Amino acid sequence: MSEGPFLVVGLGNPGPGYAGNRHNVGAMVLAELASRAGVRLSAGKGPRARALSGEGRLAGRRVVLAQPLTYMNESGGPVRGLLDYHHLPATDLVVVHDELDIPFEAVRLKRGGGEGGHNGLRSISRSTGTRDYLRVRVGIGRPPGRQDPADFVLKDFSATERKTLDLLVVEAADATELLLERGLEAAQNTVHPRS
């Protein structure tokens, strides 16, 4: 396990119109983590200008918490800029994102793998030149019927989902802290049997 600091990125789209979308659950989790760490996120200068970020400690580890200010499909540029600025390898990157292939309310952890059609992950993999980064995958489930997944992720959570959304955000934040504190395998052993 690296000594860090770790770059923890919560994915979403900028602006209030997207704030409640399923695609923004990564940004919701990042806000929870920033609150726990007492980190105020602000826009930087130069290579950090396209993200809100802040430094602090989480689960006993040094972290840089960040949310790109770009649209989802351009997340890679700000992530690359932050990795370079803080002299971090992509292996110390943790990306928190929505995941269609996991049921709503479930959280999964992994390193590497494909992007599953997720434009934010695709952009990050392209900009960093690797898929070998850590992921906190927050389940949003598949769209009902024949609804286009691209439309589904850009819709707000349903009224029923919103009743347990806060709990899901807390669980994903807990899983992120476990990942930082104990490493991937130990965190998976704790988080995966729950859901």
Automatic annotation (TrEMBL):
Enzyme active site: 23 (proton acceptor)
Site (Discriminates between blocked and unblocked aminoacyl-tRNA): 13
UniProt-annotated location(s): Cytoplasm
Alphabetical keyword list: Cytoplasm, Hydrolase, RNA-binding, tRNA-binding
Cellular component GO terms held in the UniProt record: cytoplasm
UniProt superkingdom: Bacteria
Cited InterPro entries: Pept_tRNA_hydro, Pept_tRNA_hydro_CS, Pept_tRNA_hydro_sf
Gene3D superfamilies (alphabetical): Peptidyl-tRNA hydrolase
Keyword RNA-binding attached: yes
Catalytic activity reported: an N-acyl-L-alpha-aminoacyl-tRNA + H2O = an N-acyl-L-amino acid + a tRNA + H(+)
EC number: 3.1.1.29
Chain positions recorded as tRNA binding sites: 18, 71, 73, 119
Entry keyword Cytoplasm: yes
GO molecular function annotation: peptidyl-tRNA hydrolase activity; tRNA binding
Site features described as Stabilizes the basic form of H active site to accept a proton, chain residue numbers: 98
Primary enzyme class: hydrolase
Annotated GO biological process: protein quality control for misfolded or incompletely synthesized proteins; rescue of stalled ribosome
Subunit structure, as described in the record: Monomer.
The family this protein is said to belong to: Belongs to the PTH family.
Function of the molecule: Catalyzes the release of premature peptidyl moieties from peptidyl-tRNA molecules trapped in stalled 50S ribosomal subunits, and thus maintains levels of free tRNAs and 50S ribosomes.
Record's protein name: Peptidyl-tRNA hydrolase
Gene: pth
